[in-house]
Specification:
The complex is a heterodimer of chains A (112) and B (108). Chain A is built from no helices and eleven strands. Chain A has strands at 4-7, 10-13, 19-25, 31-37, 43-51, 54-57, 64-66, 76-78, 87-94, 102-103, 107-111. In chain B, a hairpin with a 2-residue loop joins strand 6 (56-59) and strand 7. Classes of the chains: A mainly beta (112), B mainly beta (108).
Chain lengths: 112, 108
């Protein structure tokens, strides 16, 4: 049982480049989330999904896009990377809102 | 608007002491209150959670105390150990917000 798997673990991007952060869960959870965590700070919600085909913006969606074509996968797309997007990105899932989240191990992204 | 408010921001406790972290919420519709533990370089992990039908839940050295009338819940770590040094976050069901986090340092 792998839980929530995120790839890559580390990535350095140049300003203006694009990339996709991958997130896969094998627990058949309906709800999936993308958070970013800046050094010494809390978690800020970027996007979330309540099921395949349904996505919605969180607190800090600008510069990001998501899709949810299957229950398992919830990729996060960064277009035109900016230094402000340097952060650690966490994907999480839960079966419904009355349960705890399972987090992935994170992707540490640096934009230079 | 932050749905859950957490305090303190940081906490230093001697080994063997009690660590207490507090969280307050506004929405009375919330019905699940978890605490997460995050070690440096790792993702947060669910530590312990409580539902509002009980006032306390204990798992080993970790206890959640829940005060429904005050809309507050707290995490108590008994006999704190250096290995408990981590950042702790509270949250509440139906909200995607997490508390701002408490950095706990347990001094040997």
């Amino acid at each position: 049982n792998a839980g929530v798997t995120q790839t890559p673990k580390f990535r350095i991007l140049k300003i203006g480049q694009s990339m996709t952060l991958q997130c896969t869960q094998d627990m058949n959870h309906n709800y999936m989330y993308w958070y970013r965590q800046d050094p010494g700070m809390g978690l800020k919600l970027i996007y979330y999904s309540v099921g395949a085909g349904i996505t919605d913006k969180g607190e800090v969606p600008n510069g990001y896009n998501v899709s949810r074509s299957t229950t398992e996968d919830f990729p996060l797309r960064l277009e035109l990377a900016a230094p402000s997007q340097t952060s650690v990105y966490f994907c999480a899932s839960t079966p419904d809102r009355g349960h705890g989240y399972t987090f992935g191990s994170g992707t540490r992204l640096t934009v230079v | 608007q932050q749905q859950v408010k957490q305090s303190p921001q940081s906490l230093i406790v001697q080994k063997g002491g009690i660590s207490i972290i507090n969280c307050a919420y506004e929405n009375t519709a919330f019905d699940y209150f978890p605490w997460y533990q995050q070690f440096p370089g790792k993702g947060p992990a669910l530590l312990i959670a409580i539902r509002p039908d009980v006032s306390e839940k204990k798992e080993g050295r970790f206890t959640i105390s829940f005060n429904k009338s005050a809309k507050q819940f707290s995490l108590h770590i008994m006999d704190s150990q250096p290995g408990d040094s981590a950042t702790y976050f509270c949250a509440a069901s139906m909200s995607t917000d997490f508390g701002t986090g408490t950095s706990l340092t347990v001094i040997p």
